Amino acid sequence: MKLPALVAALLVVLQCHVWSAASSHPQPSCRYPPSQWCRSLEIAVECKVQKQCMELSAVRPKEAAPPVSVALYYECLCPGCRSFITQQLFPTWSMLQDIMNVTLVPYGNAKELVSDNTTFTCQHGEPECHGNMIEACILHLCGPAAFHIIYCMESAADVLSAAQPCLQMHAPAISWVSIDTCVKGDLGRRLMHANAVMTRALNPPHKHVPWVTFSGEFTEEYEDKAMSSLFHLVCQLYEVRNDASFLLLM
Description:
- This protein is mainly alpha-helical and 250 residues long.
- Helix content is 54%, strand content 9%.
- The chain has two domains: 3-64 and 231-249, no CATH class; 68-218, 3-Layer(aba) Sandwich (Glutaredoxin), CATH 3.40.30.10.
- It has helices at residues 3-21, 41-46, 50-58, 79-96, 126-141, 146-154, 163-170, 176-184, 186-200, 220-246; strands spanning 68-74, 100-106, 111-112, 120-121, 211-214.
- Strand 3 (111-112) and strand 4 form a beta hairpin.
- Helix 5 (126-141) crosses helix 9 (186-200).
- The protein is elongated, with a radius of gyration of 21 Å.
- Residues 1-24 form the signal peptide.
């Protein structure tokens, strides 16, 4: 990671800490000697020297902690999935994208006819299968704009009808014809098969949607925290990683 990106990541960490500390008891006065002030983020904050530690970090040749990887296994017409995307996942990613990677896997509780890998049935019927494939094609063809387009779709009253105007709003250089060709052709089926394989490979197997993993791991504790405050969970997971990076300062 280049130094400007490192500084940005550390700033996000401090933002996370401030948000978390706002609802907790005040921290005691600094009880550490100066030689230990930059040994961890918690000590730096307690001793009110985080700015100095960040400046010191910026001139040291080291890497910041890797981003937290969040993967959402979902289906496009599932009410709970739509709520999680619009109220938790997209807002959190918008604020924390410097320390957070998101993978979207539109498939959920769909079923694939294994004999030909081209026929799918979905929990909410054929419209959901069509919507899942539209979103899979958008993810494949639209690059960084894809998440914005899918958020736009999932927050609309009619997910499928919103697809084309959302594409035009967030990725005007991408023609709807290219998305439609993907959906109706072999590429869309191959993308959905890949999503089916990824979903079936989950360990433990998914029991419901939305199903969220963090660095490939699912736990009920993570799920409970993600559904109530994904922002704070991502901050907590990143701070644990970044504390190890702070040890390189001294």
